Amino acid sequence: MENREEKHTVWYRLSRVASFVLHPLLMPVWLLLVLFGTGMLPVYLPVGVRNYILTVVVVDTLAVPALGILLLHVFGLAGDRSLPRRGDRTLPMLVAALCYGLCAWMLGSSPMLFLLRRMMLAAMACTLFALAVNLRWPVSLHMTAVGAAVGMVSVFLYAGYTHLVWIFCGAVLCAGMLGSARLYLGRHTPAQVAAGFAAGFIIMVAVLLLAR
């Protein structure tokens, strides 16, 4: 539990900001913007199609899970909305996993959206992994998400998209900042932070490279 003096320190505030900006629910949206901004998704897609993709991703991976967490808090089924306790995480993570699967399905079977569908399936797999581990041990959900992001960009570099090297460096920097923030806030142990990152990275790489 943070004391009042600690809450007024610069490092505490920066850690809170990093944890919010790089929240697991926001990660799919950031990755989608990276895919569009770097040309990994076709830039010639009609505006209506791009708006549909953005709407589906934002609603399914951010709005619905966030609303679910809020409702659980309102009805007393979860404590703090940041879900610090293992018991508070089960239902929200299950809802998030289902939403990722729904998002992949709603994106359809177009070959142009193959990469985005794989990303959503990987996000679902990461969430289900965290859900299973959370039954015994509170692995860091933040680090699982950012580990998946680093894994995705790593696959792009491996495939020869060398113009993404700065995106990769930025993703690694964000992962380091986020891990430090979670440790500073006392939300997780070093082992939980490292395990979350490693799991997210491995799952994303496996889904992108090995899944058929």
Describe this structure as you would to a colleague.
The protein starts with a helix and ends with a helix. The chain has nine helices and no strands. The longest helix has 28 residues, at 47-74. The chain is mainly α and 212 residues long. Helix 2 packs across helix 8, helix 6 runs antiparallel to helix 9 and helix 8 (165-184) runs antiparallel to helix 9 (190-210). Helix content is 74%, strand content 0%.
General form: globular
Q: Termini distance? A: 45 Å
Q: How many H/I helical runs?
A: 9
The percentage of residues in β strands lies in: under 5%
Stretches with pLDDT under 50, minimum 5 residues: none
Number of strands: 0
- The radius of gyration computed from the alpha-carbon positions, rounded to a whole number of angstroms, is 17 Å
Q: How much helix is in the residues? A: over 70%
Order of helices and strands: HHHHHHHHH
User: Structural class from helices and strands?
Assistant: mainly alpha
- In round numbers, the mean pLDDT is 86
- Give the biggest sheet: none
Give short descriptive properties of this protein.
212 residues; mainly alpha; 9 helices
Topology, element by element:
Layout: H1 4-7, H2 10-21, H3 27-37, H4 47-74, H5 86-106, H6 114-134, H7 141-158, H8 165-184, H9 190-210
Helix pairs in contact: 2-8, 4-5, 5-6, 6-7, 6-9, 7-8, 7-9, 8-9
Task: Give a brief rundown of this model.
The chain is mainly α and 212 residues long. Helices cover 74% and strands 0% of the residues.
